[in-house]
Amino acid sequence: MIITYHGGHFIKIAHGDTVIGVNPFGKGSSRKPVRFGARIGLVSMNHPDMNGVENLSFGDKAPFVVRGPGEYEVGGVVVSGFLSPKPVGEKKLLNTIYAVELEGIRLCFLGALASSELSSELIEGIGEVDILFIPVSDKELIAPADAEKLTLALEAKLVIPLAWDDGGEKQLKIFLKEAGEEKLAQIDKLTLKKKDLEGKEGDVVLLEPLAHA
């Protein structure tokens, strides 16, 4: 499995022929569009920075798109969507949390989470988390200290902070300090197998946002 970060909440997951695009930049976003072919597209919130699934079609590839809560299975990939406990911003946009099971690895994408108060039922529904993608920003989302508490509550093996690359560097530093990872270096991609998760307990991986011309 190869994980790359395009900035914002936008993540690309690739495993063999299976590619998943999560919260891609859309029309109207201030960020430059990124296009690649994906098998599955996940949209946590109907916002231009997160809903550009049209950019996940390339050549003869068009994604199966998930835009909200529910249970889905596509080509052996199991996706579970859960409504966040609190809407986001003045427009009260709804946010969906996704848990994705791929090749025995369970990924959790919190999207634009605006509250760290997750119910026990929601945490149980999300289930065991191998890799947690969590927002660390100053834009109406959860505070960095709450983000660290949430990683502990979900008992994630690996944690990847998102949404810090547009003015949220201070919040990222706070989060890394809370996690005891102040001197963590950025890497351009994360390549791993299920066995690589053994012995991990909340380890933070800092992905460098890919630059696009």
What is the topological layout?
Blueprint: E1 2-7, E2 10-15, E3 18-22, E4 40-42, E5 64-66, E6 70-74, E7 77-83, E8 96-102, E9 105-109, H1 120-126, E10 131-135, H2 144-153, E11 158-162, H3 169-178, E12 190-191, E13 203-204
Parallel strand pairs: 3-4, 4-5, 9-10, 10-11, 11-13
Antiparallel strand pairs: 1-2, 1-12, 2-3, 6-7, 7-8, 8-9
Helix pairs in contact: 2-3
CATH class: Alpha Beta
The tally of helices reads 3
* CATH topology (level 3) name: Metallo-beta-lactamase, Chain A
Give the tally of structural domains. Answer: 1
Q: Low-confidence parts, pLDDT < 50 over ≥5 residues?
A: none
Gyration radius (Cα, Å) is: 16 Å
| Structural class computed from helices and strand pairing | alpha/beta
CATH architecture: 4-Layer Sandwich
N to C succession of SSEs = EEEEEEEEEHEHEHEE
Fraction in beta strands: 25-35%
The strand order across the widest sheet is 6-7-8-9-10-11-13
Helix share, percent:
10-25%
Largest sheet: 7 strands, mixed
Compute the separation of the termini in Å: 26 Å
Give the integer mean of the pLDDT values: 93
CATH superfamily: Ribonuclease Z/Hydroxyacylglutathione hydrolase-like
Structure notes:
This protein has 213 residues and is an alpha/beta fold. The longest helix is centred in the last third of the chain and has 10 residues, at 144-153. It is built from three helices and 13 strands. α2 crosses α3 (169-178). The chain has helices at 120-126, 144-153, 169-178, and strands at residues 2-7, 10-15, 18-22, 40-42, 64-66, 70-74, 77-83, 96-102, 105-109, 131-135, 158-162, 190-191, 203-204. A seven-stranded mixed beta sheet has the order 6-7-8-9-10-11-13, covered by helices on one side. Strands 5-4-3-2-1-12 form a six-stranded mixed beta sheet, with no helix packed on it. The relative contact order is 0.16. α2 (144-153) links the parallel β10 (131-135) and β11. The protein has a single domain, classed as Ribonuclease Z/Hydroxyacylglutathione hydrolase-like (Metallo-beta-lactamase, Chain A). The mean pLDDT is 93.
